[in-house]
Amino acid sequence: MARDIGIDLGTANILVYLKGKGIVIREPSVVAVNRHTGDVLAVGAPAKKMLGRTPASIISVRPIRDGVIADYDMAEKLIRYVLKKAQSAAGVGKSNIIISVPSGVTEVEYMAVEQAAEKAGAKKHPILFEEPVLAAIGAGIDLKESSGSMIVDIGGGTAEVAVLSAGGVVLCKSIRAAGDALDEAIISYVKRERSLLIGDLTAEEIKCTIGAAYPKPQEEYMEVKGRDLKTGLPKNIKITSSEVGEAIAEPVNTIVAAIKESLEETPPELAADVMDKGITLTGGGALLSGFDRRIKIETGIPVNVAENALDCVALGAGKCLEDAALRRLIYKNRNMGV
Ligand code: ADP
Ligand code: MG
Question: What is the pLDDT of residues 33-69, one digit of tens each?
């Protein structure tokens, strides 16, 4: 019997959980192909390194970047690569496969993921589960009980704010402001204020190193390389954490506003539960320095960043694979693809 497989099909990272083993694959959701032949040249970390650096004959893309599947052919290539690796690790036979998708996907989006997985070589019909539900399970929230919880999963392309109760989604807001939007905001700021052109990877590095959603107690600096817009030549500048804070203020505010709106829309009993238990942050964006503090100050509710924030969805899929009763409960309460 082959082991069952759980896949976190994230916009920035794709993770695979093997039943009984844990997380076995963790790769950026990036594919590099030959522009002319369509042959896959690299997938994951090596393909990510090529982003913005490829010669004319190569394209390096993030096929799940905006929304569920932005580039169907490339997404299929990415899923094919990951599935092949996962299935060979899973052993001979047909594995059950759970794949995460954003909450409230349309029927068309739902089918696109299903078909991509089938075309990519899934030996069994995959089961699609809602991302925030899996993120909550992976963060250690007990969904079997009927008390309400709020989970905020901040990924690359989207941030999802969800209120969950009794194994299902009570309400969920998905917004396009997340990790990528912070990177883009840093690129525009550095261009506008410092006349320096920087790439996506540099912007991401700045964000992860000195970015903050709440001012740091001490100013931090970082040396940044780019192209001077005036001379057209390479140039180094020093950027400060408060500049980065200013750069990302708008997308950070958008995420905070989505959380506040969701709280306003939460039924009172569940809102009281959230007040007691606090808001849980997951996803790579949850690691932005001071995000928890900022949300706590603006909402007046305790906030905790999940342990292994980047792994929660995959770990949640794993728990569903290991626990049949939990899997049935989540399956029964799914609200998507309809
Ligand atoms: P997805 O689920 O969409 O694939 P992830 O949950 O894997 O996304 O998170 C990826 C995002 O998290 C990226 O935008 C990445 O830059 C961001 N990220 C990762 N680590 C940090 C950090 N320490 N500070 C801020 N952002 C981070
Ligand atoms: Mg995710």
Answer: 999 998 899 999 999 988 888 888 998 889 987 667 7
Which atom of ligand 1 is closest in space to residue 14's alpha carbon? 4
Residues 6+ apart with CB under 8 A from 303: 278, 279, 280, 281, 292, 293, 295, 296
How many Å lie between the centroid of ligand 1 and the Cα of residue 288? 8
Contacting residues for 329 by C-beta, under 8 A, at least 6 apart: 143, 144, 167
> How far apart, in whole angstroms, are the C-alpha atoms of residue 224 and residue 234?
11
To test the pocket of ligand 1, the residue of 7, 8, 11 to mutate (highest count of ligand atoms within 8 Å of its CB) is: 11
Those residues whose C-beta lies under 8 Å from the C-beta of residue 33, and which sit 6 or more positions away, are: 39, 40, 41, 58, 59, 61, 74, 77
Residue 146 burial (CB < 10 Å; 0-12/13-18/19+)?
exposed
Give the model confidence (pLDDT) of 308-326 as tens digits. 999 999 999 999 999 999 9
Please write the tens of the pLDDT for every residue from 116-144.
Answer: 888 888 888 899 999 999 999 999 999 88
For residue 31, the CA-to-ligand 1 centroid distance in Å is 18
Residue 337 has pLDDT above 80, yes or no: no
Please compute the mean of the pLDDT values over residues 155-170 and round it to a whole number.
93
Quick check: helix, strand or coil at residue 174?
strand
Site of tokens 């079997």: 144
Residues with CB under 6 Å of ligand 1 are 10-13, 155-157, 179-180, 204, 207-208, 211, 283-285, 287-288, 310
For 215-263, the pLDDT digits (tens) are 999 999 999 999 999 999 999 999 999 999 999 999 999 999 999 999 9
Q: Name the closest ligand to CA 28.
A: 1
Which of 51, 207, 222 most suits a substitution to test ligand 1, by most atoms within 8 Å of the C-beta? 207
Asked whether 85 and 53 are in contact (CB, 8 A), the reply is: no
Q: How far is CA 313 from CA 16, 80, 121, 226, in A?
A: 10, 20, 22, 35
The backbone torsions φ and ψ at residue 151, rounded to the nearest 5 degrees and listed phi first, read -120, 135
Say how many Å lie between the CA of residue 160 and the centre of ligand 1: 13
